[in-house]
Amino acid sequence: MSAVVASATSADAASTVVPADDVADRLELVRESAPLVQCLTNVVVANATANILLALGAAPAMVDIPEEAGLFAGVASAVLVNLGTPHAEQRAAMEHAVRSASTAGTPWVLDPVAVGALPVRTALARKLAAARPTAIRGNASEIMALAGVGAGGRGVDATDSVDAAAEAAEALARRFGAVVAVSGAVDLVTDGERTVLVRTGHARLTTMTGGGCALGAVMAAFLAAGGDPLVAVVAASAVYTIAAEIAAERSAGPGSFAPAFLDALAGIDGEGVRARALLA
Ligand SMILES: Nc1ncnc2c1ncn2[C@@H]1O[C@H](COP(=O)(O)OP(=O)(O)O)[C@@H](O)[C@H]1O
Ligand SMILES: Cc1ncsc1CCOP(=O)(O)O
Ligand SMILES: [Mg+2]
After folding, report:
1. 210 assigned to a ligand binding site
2. Mean pLDDT of successive 10-residue segments in the chain (280 residues)?
3. Is the CB of 44 under 6 A from ligand 2?
């Protein structure tokens, strides 16, 4: 059996294995259901995020004004709330969307971009986290800052390691009943009881703006398919990072990586997942 796998990173959460077959099944479900993913995301990555969701087989919709966001969250398959450029209108829209998603039972993902030193988004992230997102996704410094440990990273980038964020991630997961995903060279996914490390990936993902933010949207797409949310988030991370490996082999630098990544996401299937997971 090939696995995307892991070992425990702290004394508190047990290591869990997610078989590559489960990842492949989740990918097939996303393709079959073409989930409608509502994105309230930052202006830097909105276009890249829509293209990445389309390449995967999902249907993106950037519905982020206060008068429409709540209405749409009631019919969307999943919602992404990303705090990268949280203008006042969008902040209001986020609160409507979160309320409506919670009422409708729609899965939603919180991405606390650059939380820590910046006051407006930090307060908003804490408020939204208390509304119990299905998943919280961030880099190590963002997850630590949201958990109340450390002052955040350097702008939108992490200054802490994924290892250093493991305990904060597990504590956050338990506090809010969410799956928490920490990105980095090795991605960590935890629900506070089980922790999985996703070892696939390529550093060139960090040279493309949206490398982290679009991952949150992809997690929303996988959560829309239902089932164990920990497995859904692991599957999203695995498919995404395996596609990055394939794209890195077919590109020469950041410029050619971005379109190669779209092609790799569109082309990846269960066999591709199993082949790479075996190498991880
Ligand atoms: N050093 C690295 N090597 C390989 N993959 C990485 C590395 N750092 C980040 N990644 C990948 O890049 C994506 C974005 O992660 P990251 O840069 O941590 O997010 P953010 O943009 O939120 O800071 C994730 O899929 C992660 O697995
Ligand atoms: C550069 C920047 N500034 C505010 S949001 C944003 C995008 C960050 O996207 P990612 O961290 O996914 O590259
Ligand atoms: Mg980044």
Report:
1. yes
2. 45 72 97 98 98 98 98 98 98 98 98 96 98 98 97 96 98 98 97 96 97 98 97 98 98 98 97 83
3. yes
Task: Region of 105 please: left (phi>0), alpha (psi -120 to 50) or beta.
Answer: left
Ligand 1 pocket, Cβ-based, cut-off 6 angstroms: 138-139, 157-158, 183-185, 187, 201-203, 205-206, 211-212, 215, 240-241
Decide: 201 and 188 in contact? Cβ < 8 Å.
Answer: no
* Sign of the alpha-carbon torsion through 268, 75, 38, 94: negative
3-state secondary structure of 50: helix
What is the CATH code for 14-279?
Answer: 3.40.1190.20
Please compute, for residue 37, the number of CA atoms within 13 A of its CA located in the half-sphere on the CB side: 35
For the question of an ipTM over 0.95, the answer is: yes
Closest CA to 132 of 156, 170, 106, 113: 106
Nearest listed ligand to the Cα of residue 209: 2
CB of 210 closer than 6 angstroms to any ligand 2 atom = yes
Question: Please, are residues 139 and 163 in contact by the beta-carbon 8 Å criterion?
Answer: no
